[in-house]
Amino acid sequence: MAVDYAVIVVYLAGMLAMGWWGMRRARSKSEFLVAGRRLGPAMYSGTMAAIVLGGASTIGGVGLGYQYGLSGAWMVFTIGLGLLALSVFFSARIARLKVYTVSEMLDLRYGGRAGVISGVVMWAYTLMLAVTSTIAYATIFDVLLDMDRTVAIVLGGTIVVAYSTLGGMWSITLTDMVQFVVKTIGVLLLLLPIAVVKAGGFAEMRAKLPTEYFDPLGIGGETIFTYVLIYTFGMLIGQDIWQRVFTARSDRTAKWGGTVAGTYCLVYALAGAVIGTAAKVLYPDLAAADDAFATIVKDELPVGVRGLVLAAALAAVMSTSSGALIACATVANNDIWARLRGSTRARADDHDEVRGNRVFILLMGIAVIVTAVALNNVVEALTVAYNLLVGGLLVPILGGLLWKRGTVQGALASVVTGSLAVISLMAAYGILADEPVYYGLLTSLAAYVVVSLATRPTDAAVLEVWRERLAGREASETASSPVPAPR
């Protein structure tokens, strides 16, 4: 496997080199956190697709295909649907707000008092999302080097933390673009056709597998509904996704570039399910469905190609991990730490801003690696992340965008009651149960509507500033700070 090792080493070295190059460009807060809001359509589409298609979409998507057949595409398919919905209906307005975090958007919409609590919930989501991606390094490096799980997590995590800390969003954007190309070649152009041919073609796959493997709804209607609720809606409100929207050069770029990325996700979803179905023909008795990706890569691909496909798997994991990491650090620094010490407005020294955010990426990166080493179950960690995100933040965010009668009191009540309901129901029913997100979301919606109607409407001056920003008529970076609370 010397050739495969060489491919991986070159790929990892390239990631670090791009981190160093990105450090030379990231000289202001805007450059460091949102790549100067300067990405054009091609780079925006590639990096957006890269961040949403991580280890769960690649290794997990193939595993679902192995377990359920073509209907295993639904998890990644709902991610693509969410990205399409975000791009078509919301991304242009989000890009025009010129903020850095979701919590800043809530402060702008509701009057400056919703940020800390929503920031804590968003921080928990981004932290757990980064952890799940970091855990996935163990699977890939085990195939490559038969490496100890802890060493694999530390090695992969350290590389991501290094290039993210050095160059911030510029480094992550450059590495994500490379990762997008590597994933496209490795998974779509190489692994997919090779897996189908090795399995004997579609006719042979149909002959050897039960008919339900080719039923588009075979995974079950309730499961599909849960995927839509968690992943489609989760794509609409996650800090990791919004922070990429903020990098777009224009609202048109955000809309159409995101639409291309969402369509790519739909194709990627089907490819993963087909690869998993082919693996079921070749290896009908694997101990775990998630072993399907690693097994077919290790046993069926030729030397060199195998290294490239494993690099594609690393690319999938690293893109999501780095995006979640910078989102986690941005929320921790700008929405929690700065507010707790009473400094919500941008400081005058851009260099200090970059240095502060760089320190937070390093600290959050260490926390992610330590947490990943301590946890084993990727699915449970990912479920906790999305349950908190959807149950706690979906209603006040979409309510703020769609319903002008929503108030800051309603938003705070929604965040608190929804989050507490999700946590208590996960304790009662189990982390993987459907009830926490179902009832948590209903609780959050009820609290938002009832409390908003029972309290005074949002101050007219606050709403006027909000409308101006949504229309793109307030574009200066200094205006991105939350407006003061109404008297």
From TrEMBL:
Q: Keywords assigned by UniProt?
A: Cell membrane, Membrane, Transmembrane, Transmembrane helix, Transport
The organism's superkingdom is given as Bacteria
Q: Does the keyword Membrane apply?
A: yes
Q: Output the Gene3D superfamilies linked to this UniProt entry.
A: Sodium/glucose cotransporter
Its membrane topology: Multi-pass membrane protein
Fetch the InterPro entries from UniProt. Na/Glc_symporter_sf, Na/solute_symporter, Na/solute_symporter_CS, Sodium:Solute_Symporter
The regions listed as transmembrane in this protein's record are: 6-23, 44-66, 72-95, 116-140, 152-173, 180-203, 223-242, 263-283, 308-338, 359-378, 384-403, 410-431, 437-455
Q: Name one Pfam family in it.
A: SSF
Its annotated compartments are:
Membrane
Q: What is its main location?
A: membrane
Return the similarity comment. Answer: Belongs to the sodium:solute symporter (SSF) (TC 2.A.21) family.
Protein name, per record: Sodium:solute symporter
UniProt source species: Streptomyces vulcanius
Its lineage opens with: Bacteria, Bacillati, Actinomycetota, Actinomycetes, Kitasatosporales
